[in-house]
From TrEMBL:
InterPro entries: Kinase-like_dom_sf, Prot_kinase_dom, Protein_kinase_ATP_BS
TM stretches of this protein: 510-532
Chain positions covered by the region annotation Disordered: 349-483
Species of the source: Gemmata massiliana
Origin: domain of life: Bacteria
Protein name as catalogued: Protein kinase domain-containing protein
C-alpha cells in the first residue's frame, strides 16, 4: 500500500508501523481492507476498528493516537495495558512474544548497561526455588532507551486495597496471611535473598486466598553497590518514602541496610495494619514517622482491636522490636508461632488456599502441624506452576529452570560488617545476597589482585657483587621457607627475598668490609671536592 492511499490516516499508520506492534504485511492488508470500505475515514475511526478486531488494545490505540508510538514493545514484551504507577515507574500488563504468557513489566529510566548485569544476578537467584507466596523476578533488560523489570503477572487485590475498603481483618485471616508470607520469606532467606520492601501494597491476595509478595528483587537492587545501582537516585528516594510506614529502624538509619531481620519488622507492620486498620505510626511528617520507628511504641493492638488474642499481639510486638536481636531467629520460627492462631481452617474468611483439596480431606478443627496447601518447615520449597521465562532479545541470560525435586535450603550466610578496605561497596554477606558466579561478567575482581604493571613498579632487589669489586666465594644456598599461597607477583617477590636472606647471613664479614670501603671512598671524594673549591 502506497502512502498516498492512506488519506487522513497516513500519520497514524506510519506511527503504527514504527511501534512494532504489528508486522508490516498483515498491517497493510487490514488497513487496506478498512479504507476500501471507508475511504474518508480518519485515524480515530481506524483505531476503533483495530480495537474491535482485537488487533490493538484500547491502551495501545490511545497511546498511538496521542503520538506515543515508542516504548510499546520492550524486548520480547508487548505492553497491553497500564495497571499501576509505583514510586519507581509505571507498571504494565504485557505479553511475551516467546511464550504468550502475561507479565507485569515495570519501566525505569535508563542507566548504564553494567548495572543491568548486576540485576541479572538477582534474576538467576530466583531460578533456584519457587514458592506460592513469592512472585519471582524473572527478567531485566533495556530497550528503546528504557530499563524494564519483569515478573509473572498475578491477579488479585492488594492487602492495602482490601483493608481500605473493608476495614481491619479477623485475627485468623491475618494469621493465615502471616503464615503464608513468613513461609515465602523463609525459603527466600535460605537462598540468601531478602525482600526489603514488605508493605501492604506489595502483598497481593488472590481469588484462592493466597498471599503473594510483589516487587521481590527491588529491595536488593536498592542496596547494590554505590554508584552501580540500577535504580536512579530520585527513584530510590521515592521508593524509600513510599515504604516508610513499614520501614525497619535500621533501614531508616542506613537505607542500604536491608536484611532478613528487616523483613521481619516490615511484616510485623503489615500484620499490625491488617489487625487494626491503621499503620503503626499514622500521624506526622516523614521525619516524625522516621523518629517514631526509632524511639516510640505504636498504640497497643488490643486497644484498637479488642478481639485480637494476646498471644497474637505479642507476636507482632516481637516482630516490631527496635533491635534486630529482639526479633525471631528466623521466619520459620515465626511460622510455628503463628500457626496456633489459624484455628478452624474452614472458618477463615475467603476460604482455604487450595480449598477443594483441603475440603476433600474433611478437615474441621485443625489438628495437623502444618496448613494444607502450604509448605511446612521441613519442606519450604513446595513448587507452584509459573510461566516459563522468555528468552529476552535484549541479551539477558536465561534463568535456570527450577529443579524438579525438593529444594535443599542453602545455609544462610552470616552477617559481617562492611569492610572499608574493599572500596566503598556494601558487603554482600551483610545483605544476605547470593555470591556472584565465577563466570559472571559483572563480578568484582578480588581486592588483593595487584593491578596490571605492578611487577615493573616493584623496587629492584639488591644483587650479589654490587657492593664489592672483590670476588666472593659462592654462598651455600639453603632451601627457602615455605611461602603462603598468595598472588603470583607477591610470590615472586617473597621468593626473591627468601633467597637473599641466607646469602647475607653467610657473608656478613665481606659485606661489612665492603660497606666500610664505600663510606671511606665517599668521604675522600667529598673532602677532595671541598679542597678544590
Amino acid at each position: 500500500m502506497v502512502t498516498s492511499d492512506l488519506g487522513a490516516c497516513e500519520w497514524f499508520v506510519w506511527d503504527l508501523r514504527r511501534s512494532g506492534l504489528i508486522d508490516r504485511g498483515p498491517l497493510d492488508q487490514i488497513v487496506g481492507e478498512f479504507l476500501k470500505r471507508n475511504p474518508r475515514a480518519e485515524a480515530p475511526s481506524l483505531a476503533e476498528f483495530l480495537v474491535d478486531q482485537g488487533t490493538l488494545t484500547a491502551f495501545q490505540a490511545e497511546r498511538l493516537l496521542n503520538g506515543k508510538s515508542q516504548g510499546l514493545v520492550l524486548g520480547p514484551y508487548v505492553l497491553l495495558d497500564a495497571i499501576g504507577a509505583g514510586s519507581m515507574g509505571q507498571v504494565y500488563k504485557a505479553s511475551s512474544k516467546n511464550d504468550n504468557n502475561h507479565y507485569a513489566v515495570k519501566v525505569l529510566p535508563r542507566r548504564s548497561m553494567w548495572n543491568v548485569r548486576l540485576a541479572r544476578r538477582q534474576v538467576r537467584s530466583f531460578g533456584s526455588f519457587t514458592h506460592p507466596a513469592v512472585v519471582p523476578f524473572v527478567d531485566v533488560g533495556t530497550a528503546g532507551g528504557l530499563h524494564y523489570l519483569a515478573w509473572p503477572l498475578v491477579e488479585g487485590t492488594t492487602l492495602e486495597a482490601i483493608i481500605q475498603h473493608n476495614g481491619k481483618l479477623p485475627p485468623n485471616q491475618v494469621a493465615l496471611y502471616g503464615v503464608q508470607i513468613a513461609q515465602g520469606l523463609t525459603i527466600a532467606h535460605q537462598n540468601n535473598l531478602f525482600h526489603g520492601l514488605v508493605k501492604p501494597s506489595n502483598v497481593m491476595i488472590g481469588s484462592d486466598n493466597q498471599a503473594r509478595m510483589l516487587d521481590f528483587g527491588i529491595g536488593s537492587l536498592l542496596v547494590e553497590n554505590e554508584g552501580e545501582s540500577l535504580v536512579d537516585t530520585m527513584s530510590t528516594a521515592n521508593t524509600l518514602t513510599s515504604g516508610l510506614d513499614c520501614a525497619s529502624p535500621e533501614s531508616i538509619m542506613e537505607p542500604t541496610n536491608r536484611t532478613p531481620a528487616g523483613d521481619q519488622y516490615s511484616l510485623g507492620c503489615v500484620l499490625y495494619y491488617a489487625l487494626t486498620g491503621h499503620v503503626p505510626f499514622p500521624e506526622g511528617s516523614a521525619v516524625e514517622k522516621m523518629m517514631a520507628h526509632q524511639t516510640k511504641e505504636p498504640t497497643p493492638i488490643r486497644e484498637l482491636a479488642p478481639n485480637v488474642p494476646p498471644g497474637l499481639e505479642e507476636i507482632v510486638q516481637r516482630l516490631m522490636a527496635k533491635a534486630p536481636e529482639g526479633r525471631y531467629s528466623g521466619c520459620d520460627e515465626l511460622v510455628e508461632a503463628l500457626e496456633p492462631f489459624l484455628g478452624d481452617l474452614n472458618q477463615i474468611p475467603g476460604g482455604i488456599p487450595g480449598g477443594s483439596r483441603a475440603g476433600a480431606a474433611g478437615l474441621g478443627n485443625r489438628s495437623s502441624s502444618h496448613m494444607p496447601g502450604l509448605p511446612g518447615r521441613s519442606n519450604p520449597g513446595s513448587r507452584i506452576t509459573l510461566p516459563n521465562k522468555p528468552s529476552p532479545s535484549s541479551g539477558a541470560r536465561p534463568v535456570p529452570k527450577p529443579q524438579s525435586g525438593p529444594v535443599t535450603p542453602n545455609t544462610p550466610i552470616p552477617q559481617s560488617p562492611r569492610s572499608t578496605a574493599s572500596t566503598n561497596l556494601p558487603g554482600r554477606a551483610s545483605f544476605q545476597l547470593p555470591t556472584p558466579d565465577e563466570n559472571d561478567t559483572g563480578a568484582v575482581a578480588p581486592i588483593n589482585t595487584p593491578p596490571a604493571g605492578a611487577r615493573s613498579a616493584l623496587p629492584k632487589l639488591p644483587t650479589r657483587g654490587a657492593t664489592s669489586a672483590k670476588p666472593e666465594p659462592k654462598p651455600v644456598k639453603t632451601a627457602p621457607p615455605p611461602a603462603p599461597v598468595i598472588e603470583e607477583e607477591e610470590a615472586e617477590l617473597a621468593d626473591a627475598w627468601a633467597e637473599e636472606v641466607p646469602e647475607r647471613k653467610n657473608n656478613t664479614g665481606a659485606i661489612g668490609l665492603a660497606a666500610i670501603a664505600i663510606v671511606l671512598m665517599i668521604a675522600v671524594y667529598i673532602g677532595a671536592t671541598m679542597l678544590m673549591k
